[in-house]
Amino acid sequence: MSSDPEPSRASAIFDSLPYYDNDYERDPTLKDKAEKLIAKELANLKPQQQSQLHPRVPPPITIFANNPLLEAEMARIEAQQPFPQMDTLRYQLPGPASSPGTPEEWEAALKNARAQLEHQRLRQSNLALLQNYGANAWRIHNYLLETTSKNLDKSLEELKELTTEVNRDRKNFQTRLGSQLTSLETRWTELISNVLQIEMANVALEGEIERLTKKEAELAAM
């Protein structure tokens, strides 16, 4: 793998210390200026650039991507559509449409009745299995859900602690650098003041030298 930095990150320079900088407090007009600059920059961006996320932002998670039925149900809930009515035709036993009915119609009605009978038999078997083993299966399912929930809560707490630690380190680092910057800025101000004082003293000395030179010339002329 190449060790070269990404082009988008190589040209980015971050010089902000949010835990130390208080420019907004010292100059309230800076916030308005910053917002105007941001609005101007956004206005210059193309619509597709405004909608693009940072490359390091993960893609959105697709829920139930491998289950079309649950995915469609989730889309229905998000769209706030009503739940479809239950199809009760499968539970009915309609007779032939005509009277007395053709053999084909009676054959279709007989097949439907057999299918309904088989369906009821399967329901009775499922209910018996549920009565015998459903309680334990439900307890095991609840136990697995509780274990998963505890693991997720633990991971969340660890992530929160890690985030707090990172923010604490950033704050300490920026506060330490801020103190150094303040000291250097104070020293720079003192040096500039000393330089100005020296320049003013030089100007005064030059004026004094010029006055003495003129006086010496006058004395020599006398």
TrEMBL record:
One GO CC term on file: catalytic step 2 spliceosome
Subcellular location: Nucleus
Keyword Coiled coil found: yes
Key words of the record: Coiled coil, mRNA processing, mRNA splicing, Nucleus, Spliceosome
InterPro entries with a match to the protein in the record: SPF27
Coiled coil: 145-222
Single Gene Ontology BP annotation: RNA splicing
Domain of life: Eukaryota
Protein family membership: Belongs to the SPF27 family.
Stated name of the protein: Breast carcinoma amplified sequence 2
Species assigned in the record: Cristinia sonorae
